[in-house]
Amino acid sequence: MTFNPLVWPFRVQYLTGAIVCAGLLGYALFEQYQMGVEPCPLCIFQRITFMAMGILFLIGAAHGPQNSGRRVYAVLVSIAAIAGIAVAARHLYLQSLPPSEVPDCGPGLGYMLDAFPLAKTLKMVFTGSGECAEVNWKFLGLAMPGWTLICYVALAVGAWWAAIRGRAIERSP
After folding, report:
1. Which of 49, 126, 153, 171 is 20 to 30 A (C-alpha) from 118?
2. Smallest Cα–Cα separation from 71: which of 156, 169, 168?
3. How far is CA 49 from CA 52, 54, 78, 84, 88, in A?
4. What average pLDDT does the segment 65-91 reach?
C-alpha cells in the first residue's frame, strides 16, 4: 500500500486541521510570552477565530460524519475562517495606513470588555486602534495578520477538501 496524502481519511484531515490551529495559537502565545510581542485587540480576535476553527476541526474529527455531515462541518469551519479573514483584512488595512491617518490608540481590550457592552466593544475594536496599526513582526515580508489571512484561507480550503475529497478513501479497495 502506498502513501497518498491527497486521500487521507476525513478524521485524519480534520485532526490535522485542529493540530495546525493549536500550533498557530501556541506560536502566538510564544511570541507574546517569550518574545514580548503584546497582542492588540484585533490579534486577540484572530486568536479566538483560530480557537473556534480548532474546536470545529476537533469535533469533526471525533464525529467522523458521512457525506452531507462533512459539508456541514466545512461550512462551519468556513464561517469561522471568513470571520478571521475579515479581522485580518481590517488589521492589514490599519497597518497599511500612513502614520498621519492611523486612529488614536484606545483602551485595552480587557478594560473595554469590563466597561462597555459587548456590541460597543466590538464596534470600538473594529473602528480601529493605533496599537493595531503597529507592525512589530514580519516573516518573508508579511506581517502576522497577512500570515493569519493565508492560514484562514488554507484551513478553509482544507476543510472543504476533506469534505469533498475525503470520501474517495472509503470507496477505494
Report:
1. 153
2. 156
3. 5, 9, 11, 6, 10
4. 91
